[in-house]
Amino acid sequence: MTAPAGVTVRVPAKVNVQLAVGAARPDGFHDLANVFLAVSLYDEVTATPADELTITCEGPDADKVPLDRTNLAARAAELLAARHGISPAVHLHIAKDIPVAGGMAGGSADGAGALLACDALWGLDTSRDVLLEICAELGSDVPFSLVGGAALGIGRGEQLTGLPVGGAFHWVFAVADGGLSTPAVYGEFDRLTEGVDVPEPTASPVLLEALRAGDTTALAGALANDLQAAALSLRPSLAATLTAGTEAGALAALVSGSGPTTAFLVKDAEAAESVAAALTASGTCRTARAATSPAPGATVLPSA
Ligand code: C5P
């Protein structure tokens, strides 16, 4: 008997070029105006038939990835199987390149990747709308991992509208030692804004126009992350990383999502190389990675 074929899906990381955060809602979530941009750092999720749901992971940070049912990839397989009344009999292998717990939606990427891989493996042909519904159930950032490109997320970030992007943007991402818990960063945001009248989050027209025009200088001036103060409060050492990247020539620097990965917008690929080298040499981060945007969403790769 020949070995059963697997399905591999490649899924991008994201950076939030604008993350406007409103006050905490009664359900504990925060209303957002979340401008997502997919970047060219990818995880790959491979689904193969198995007797029961199992997960393995490879990559430099593999030891930090949970291999139980708390992994969003496992939950994606379970939710999809439940929708179709079948058993989630699958082995999921994650080749992890996106920083873990870094504010780049690596866990969400694996959820979206597993969903698409299982759908193809099981020949379910689930509609895009249902896949997006399952993504939203998995987590606020998961729908964007499926869709990729650029999008504005409202609600808790899961209600997406695609955005036009007029050109490539170049980035460097500085990966910190250790992760930051997203709920802890939102909790710190609540603490820092206690007694403050937090405005309704809205997308910046200047930022949306910079994306549409592919204008790096304009985007650099418009980058904004309302979680940055909270991430810096929990991890003050990130300030030195932001300074090191700016001093090395980045046009702008900000915390990526809830951190602790920091993002540096640079002029071109050459600047990305020199800023990445300077950040690595600065000793203020574990490693630095160059990437471009926009990147496509979750994609089934041709079988080898
Ligand atoms: O949706 P997700 O599971 O990724 O959210 C993780 C945590 O991040 C939530 O439990 C909540 O504490 C926080 N969060 C939030 N508001 C959002 C998205 C996430 O408060 N819009």
How many domains, in number, for the residues? 2
Distance between the termini: 19 Å
Q: Give the structural class.
A: alpha+beta
Query: Which oligomeric state applies?
Result: single chain
Short structural summary:
Belongs to the GHMP kinase family. IspE subfamily. The chain has helices spanning about 70-85, 105-120, 130-140, 140-145, 180-190, 205-215, 215-220, 230-235, 240-245, 270-280, and strands at about 5-25, 30-50, 55-60, 90-95, 150-155, 160, 170-175, 225, 250-255, 260-265, 285-295, 300.
Key terms for this structure?
single chain; 304 residues; alpha+beta; Ribosomal Protein S5, domain 2; Alpha-Beta Plaits; 2 domains; 8-stranded mixed β-sheet; 4-stranded antiparallel β-sheet; 10 helices; 12 strands; 28% strand; globular; binds cytidine-5'-monophosphate; ATP-binding; kinase
Q: What's the SSE blueprint?
A:
Layout: E1 7-24, E2 30-49, E3 54-58, H1 72-84, E4 90-95, H2 106-121, H3 128-138, H4 142-147, E5 150-154, E6 159-162, E7 169-175, H5 182-192, H6 205-213, H7 216-222, E8 224-225, H8 228-234, H9 238-247, E9 252-255, E10 262-266, H10 269-282, E11 287-293, E12 299-300
Parallel strand pairs: 1-8, 3-4
Antiparallel strand pairs: 1-2, 1-12, 2-4, 2-5, 5-6, 7-10, 7-11, 9-10
Helix pairs in contact: 1-2, 1-3, 2-3, 5-8, 6-7
The structure holds cytidine-5'-monophosphate (C5P).
